[in-house]
């Protein structure tokens, strides 16, 4: 049995995810077959993640007589998902890496979710996560090989239904995009031959799945680029926000474009 003290002599791997409402991290230690879970924690605290993530990591490390300096690789889900959650997790990773010299890696969230049930299926797997009201992120795969059939996109519910139908059957649907639009997709399942809504236990990555993806990610000293598939709510509402502040909406749009291209 490996003790915490012997783990301290080895380099550790930290994987984090704050892409959706569930905030997660898992700490892995080297083993003969890759990494094993040393510790993991998760919270469902939308809008309050900043109060839990870094204090939770610090508390967990201290309880095992470990330090951030013992972590040499940090992997984070990089989206798409909650803009606030993504920024929080990526900023935490940057801060820890700056202090410890750890390498960083980003993980594509929908691909990560697909890797859970995908190898157990035979057909087309569609991962749909919640983007905002009436909108989902979708990515489609051929299972069990897990080759991408259709790329990541942000679509309406009707557009998602069309894409799923065009990809053929048997098909399987998973993700928070289904759960938060349950009436729509239950009706879609009822009217679509050989279409199955997978259980909600696949809607979030398990600690083992998160660590496995982190162990095979591509690491470097560079910052992690987030995946933003759609415009933020603030960008969409820019004309109204500008008007309330006495700014010409067109001028505000031009200024935003200049900043984005700088």
TrEMBL record:
One of its GO terms (biological process) is proteolysis. Residues 53-141 form the Gcp-like domain. It comes from the Bacteria. Coiled coil: none annotated. The keyword Iron does not apply. GO terms for molecular function: peptidase activity. The keyword Acetylation does not apply. InterPro entries: ATPase_NBD, Gcp-like_dom, T6A_TsaB. Keywords: Hydrolase, Protease. Pfam families: TsaD. NCBIfam families: T6A_YeaZ. This is Peptidase M22 glycoprotease. It comes from Pseudodesulfovibrio profundus. The lineage of its organism: Bacteria, Pseudomonadati, Thermodesulfobacteriota, Desulfovibrionia, Desulfovibrionales.
């Amino acid at each position: 049995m490996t003790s915490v003290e012997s783990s301290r002599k080895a380099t550790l791997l930290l994987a984090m995810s704050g892409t959706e409402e569930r905030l997660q991290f898992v700490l892995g230690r080297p083993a003969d077959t890759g990494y094993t879970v040393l510790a993991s924690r998760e919270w469902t605290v939308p809008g309050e993640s900043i109060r839990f993530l870094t204090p939770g990591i610090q508390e967990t490390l201290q309880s095992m007589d470990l330090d951030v300096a013992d972590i040499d690789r940090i992997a984070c889900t990089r989206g798409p998902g909650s803009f606030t959650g993504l920024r929080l997790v990526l900023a935490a990773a940057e801060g820890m890496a700056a202090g410890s010299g750890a390498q960083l890696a980003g993980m594509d969230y929908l691909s990560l979710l697909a890797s859970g049930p995908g190898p157990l299926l035979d057909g087309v797997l569609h991962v749909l996560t919640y983007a905002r009201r009436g909108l989902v992120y979708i990515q489609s795969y051929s299972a069990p090989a897990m080759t991408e059939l259709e790329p990541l996109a942000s679509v309406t519910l009707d557009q998602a239904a069309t894409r799923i139908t065009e990809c053929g059957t048997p098909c399987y649907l998973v993700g928070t995009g289904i759960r938060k639009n349950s009436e729509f997709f239950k009706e879609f399942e009822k009217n679509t031959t050989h279409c199955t809504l997978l259980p909600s236990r696949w809607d979030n990555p398990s600690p083992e799945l998160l660590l496995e993806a982190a162990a095979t990610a591509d690491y470097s000293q560079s910052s992690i680029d987030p995946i933003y598939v759609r415009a933020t709510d603030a960008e969409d509402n820019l004309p109204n926000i500008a008007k309330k502040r006495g700014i010409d909406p067109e001028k505000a749009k031009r200024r935003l474009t200049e900043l984005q291209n700088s």
